[in-house]
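User: I'm writing a tutorial on reading structure tokens. Could you give me a worked example: one chain, its sequence, then its tokens, then a sentence or two explaining what the tokens reveal?
Assistant: Sure. Here is the example chain.
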Amino acid sequence: MNRLFIFLLSLAAFAFAPASAAVNFTLSQSAVSNLFTGALDLQITGLTSGEPVLLQKFIDANNDGIVDPGEPLVGQFKLIEGQVSRIGGVRNRNVPGDADETANGVINETIDFSDPKDFAHHVAPYLFRVSSPTTNFLPLVRAFAVTNSTLGQAVTGTVSSAPNAFIILLKPSADGGELFAGGIANAAGMFSISCPPGNYQVLATKSGMVTDFGAAPTVTVGAGVSTNVTLSLAPANRTISGTLTNSATGGVLAGVQVRLQSTNELFALGYSDDQGNFSIGVVAGEWSPEVEETALTALGYVAPEQLSSINTTVAGVTGLVLSFQPATALFHGSFVVGGTSTGIAAMPFSARIQNSSVSASGLTDANGNFTLGVLAGSWSVGPESDALLARGILANGTNATIADGQALRIDFASRTVTAHLTGQVLDNFGVPLTNFMIVVQPVPFPQNGAGSYYPSTDAQGNFDIGVSAGTWNIALESQRTAASNLVSFSIDRVVVDNVNQSNLVFVALRATQQITGLVSDGATGVTNVQVYGGTTINGTNYVSGASYTDGGGNYVLKVVNATWNVSLNNFDLNGRGFFSPNNQIMGISGAPGIANFPLTRYSNIITLGNLSRAGNQFSLQATGDTGRNYVLEFTTSLRAPIVWSPVTTNFQSGANFQASDNQATGTARYYRMRVHQQ
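And here are its predicted structure tokens:
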């Protein structure tokens, strides 16, 4: 799931010296290498009870030991002696605080440094500044360096006309590249980054300049050999600027990385300053902004999966306000080796709210414990599939509903990869499909995608899929399939523990026809609706690549000659207030086809009647829309503030259904029925 650059905001290295006899700062280690995977213990002594401390981390780009104007603030946290961030009585361990939670004049915190691929391991000089918001002591500035490990080979080179630029090594992957390592060029633009042998994409980025991601060179590093590259950046000629804010309070988010990527693969980045403001140099184009999710997590926020695009075709854009929601609920639990109590450390966990575009993330600690700060709602929660795959671990996620102020515990256990499916993916002309992501899902499919895995084919189209006993569905990732004018296979394989299956050949078809259509609400097209197409040819199931309706409600499915079952994402449509339309069967034989979907809206009218009582049970008859979920709620008072509580959830299968309350005793109860948002 890693995309482009993963700039993990982490308190990776704090080396402090005392400002006075009253206040002292120590760290368990004064420096770490870029391969360090342990923990750092931070201690601040000499504080008063409940005293706040502002902790800031800067990149010392020119390595002069001074926080100079323009040097990026890459982390800022307010620590309070004796306090931590809690939701529902449980600590959110993603947010730094005083771990001992004791009013003893000391702040203790253990800093997780377990993921060597995060940006906290970027080889660079840093400056850490500790100050008192109440001016109780003078600010302290101390230097720290993340050092370059000696591995016997490296990527070396020069960045033309860009001293002190960031250098990033990416491992090429089907979803755009995964951060592997990084560093900072010196004043002459020269750099050297040690790495194991392998293939890497190398690029540079710097404030006020633009990177052409599509033109970044890919190099092969051999054992014992340093590979040299020359990188270049283009000057920006306009800016995108704004402020990162708390949507609930209007407060600002400081030290957070903001990334911008254009539709033609240009890239630029910047950081918010101590007032939450950012200004990033760009050129003319359409830019998609993204704020680093791990930074938001460490500040106690959830992350939007997509922000509105920004157009700089005519001029730069100023005054943007990007608002983020603070977490109001908390998932927590453990991830252990199946059948044992042994925790699985440094495993990325994530949660995504269903029928929305908000996510949360975190890492398990040394004992396998995790916390995820979220919002009220229904979420898909679990370990991230790509990290599981990399470690040869299988595990299922789950669905869970949580309320504001609630801390909900969910524990997970792993399964071991017990068999491998190996082979090659080709098109119907025998051409290997290289670097394609494969979607591997358990059968039957969980609604939230839990337990799915996403390996990729290599440069020869070969694959190696680790699984365990059961039935698994295998297909190509749908967006790349559509973009490559392909129709994917959709094949079920039955797996037995300890029995490998080799020399498998999966064949995708080159599309020769198309099915088009309109998804509409009356005369208005409905945008961004996912459309599916499936068929069976000679006993093999095939699926079309992903297609979404455009701004006018139109879609295009890439297909071949066959009889196709065309359908829509009904879960999404139901959430927008539409009935599920019938699938359409479309025969394609030497000519394109048309399948339109006129939609019908729910009435959104619920009537209640025929109230009856039998002992302590009250029953009533409800009439609403067929195929919707409803929840019956009650309150004991209609005086403000009114608190409604659920009685039960009923799925209506016809025009009428009955709802009951068998706990109605001792006091008057008032009822209402509303649509249950899943």
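What the tokens reveal: DSSP finds four helices and 59 strands in the chain. Residues 329-415 form a domain with the Immunoglobulin-like fold (CATH 2.60.40.10).
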